[in-house]
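not sure who needs this but someone in the group chat was asking about Reverse transcriptase zinc-binding domain-containing protein from Quercus lobata so here u go. i didnt clean anything up, its just raw.
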Amino acid sequence: MWQCLHNAIGVGVCLVKRCISNDDICPLCHREPETILHRLRDCGTSKQILERLGVKQNSNFYEGNLGQRLEYNCKNNTCRLGEQPPWRIIFPFAIWLLWKHRNATIFRNLHAQPNVHKDALFRSLEFQHCGLNNKKSGSKRVVQVRWERPQVGWACLNTDGAAVGNPGRAGLVAL
């Protein structure tokens, strides 16, 4: 969201302004300059995915500038699809996955990704269940952790380790 509001994602128009590219045309529809609004809202591929998420073609979703659209959609508490999470939860996942879909098309040649909307719904449901569920499960027990002298006749071996990568360089210390 922050990157969108600050024109900091690499859509065609931004890349041309930074002299990284000389072509600002949308790599998915090949019809219009790729602005952030075009990528996340106006492009035909984005519209198809948004329709599957309950956005109507003639709705006010397609009005206003980028900042207004992001704010409105992140505050919109209505449910567009029956028993699904509110739009304010689905929307951030949807635009993130639209961006990932665009990059997969450009960098990995994955053109047909028909389940982007399902992925957005799944991630929204998962977030709503795990991230917003305030129910506490089970009982909580606080255990104080500290070093204790071993019993007579026993020895204590303190260890620590670290690794860089998996597999990678690693080290171990024992005292």
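also DSSP finds seven helices and two strands in the chain. if thats useful
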